[in-house]
Amino acid sequence: MLLVVGGKVKKPGKRGRKPAKIDLKAKLERSRQSARECRARKKLRYQYLEELVSSRERAICALREELEMYKQWCMAMDQGKIPSEIKALLTGEEQGKAQQNSTKLAKAAKTEANSSNP
């Protein structure tokens, strides 16, 4: 049985593309090239993951050192001593607050002066 569709004769049966006769050597070369590319992508992926792991390990070490420092500070404060680092932080905060207050007062004075002088 033959079907005529749009001026073309179609045979019933298999649908889709017919397999082209491909040179075996060319097919093998494409396969090799694909494998090379796959290995290269895999290598890059592993390099990226190794860098990611090493950066996370460095971050973990830094956080452990910071935690140890805080533990030492707590032990010193339990003994009634205030570590010099904490004193520096507290005095720095007090100085920062004093500067903020002085700038706020200066701004308030400027706005008052501007509003009273029309």
Helices and strands, in order, run as: EEHH
Tell me the Rg in angstroms.
38 Å
Structural class comes to mainly alpha
Q: How many helices in DSSP terms? A: 2
> Residue ranges: pLDDT <50 for 5 or more in a row?
none
General description of the model:
There is one protein chain. This protein is mostly helical. It has a domain at 25-89. Helix content is 75%, strand content 5%. A two-stranded antiparallel sheet has the order 1-2. A hairpin with a 2-residue loop joins strand 1 and strand 2. The protein starts with a strand and ends with a helix. The relative contact order is 0.03. It is found in: Nucleus.
Short description:
This is cAMP-responsive element-binding protein-like 2. This protein is mainly alpha-helical and 118 residues long. The protein has two helices and two strands.
Fill in the keyword field for this structure:
DNA binding, 2 strands, two-stranded antiparallel ribbon, 5% strand, 118 residues, elongated, mainly alpha
Structural topology:
Layout (H helix, E strand, L loop, with lengths): L2 E3 L2 E3 L13 H55 L5 H33 L2
Antiparallel strand pairs: 1-2
